[in-house]
Design a protein that fits this description.
Blueprint: E1 4-8, H1 23-40, E2 54-63, E3 74-83, E4 88-95, E5 100-112, E6 117-118, H2 123-130
Antiparallel strand pairs: 1-3, 2-5, 3-4, 4-5, 5-6
Organism: Streptomyces varsoviensis
InterPro entries: 4-hydroxybenzoyl-CoA_TE, HotDog_dom_sf
Protein name: Thioesterase
């Protein structure tokens, strides 16, 4: 199983009054990694895969430890834990060499912008996603339902 790696820079404005990256900012980090994964890596030259739009149906984020501002980027590993006919679940770890700061998952629904409704995942999209698929219980970084986290 492959994982997509995204190098995410930290911005000074990402910090809150407590001196660490604000919890809401992590949603933006996950979005950047997910967009990089789905659109930049979409299969085939000139492929329309993933270009029609998508919507987030659900986020689950487990904050494991504070991340303070620094000049070095963090790595966001992205992989797929579930594929259905009309949705996919993307898992993430926000980390560096020594620490995992966040484990998260997002349910993404492909969306037909012109028709204004959800659409099914194409065969080409499914083939691409399968290369990054790992079962939730098998992936060491996948968040588990009700996982205890450090405060």
């Amino acid at each position: 199983m492959a994982r997509h790696l995204y190098s995410c820079p930290l911005r000074w404005s990402d910090m809150d009054a407590f001196g660490h990256v604000n919890n809401a900012v992590f949603v933006r980090y996950l979005e950047e990694a997910r967009i990089d994964f789905m659109w930049r890596l979409a299969p085939g030259e000139g492929s329309a895969s993933f270009s029609g739009g998508s919507v987030v149906a659900r986020h689950e984020i487990n904050y494991l430890r504070p991340l303070v501002h620094r000049h070095a980027p963090v790595t966001i590993e992205t992989w797929v834990t579930k594929i259905t006919a009309a949705s996919m679940t993307v898992a993430y770890e926000v980390k560096d060499d020594d620490e995992v700061y966040v484990r998260a998952s997002t349910v993404v629904v492909p969306y037909d912008l012109e028709a204004g409704r959800p659409r099914r995942i194409t065969a080409e999209e499914k083939a691409f996603l399968e290369a990054y698929r790992d079962e939730p219980g098998d992936a060491p970084g996948a968040p588990e339902q009700g996982e205890a986290v450090a405060a």
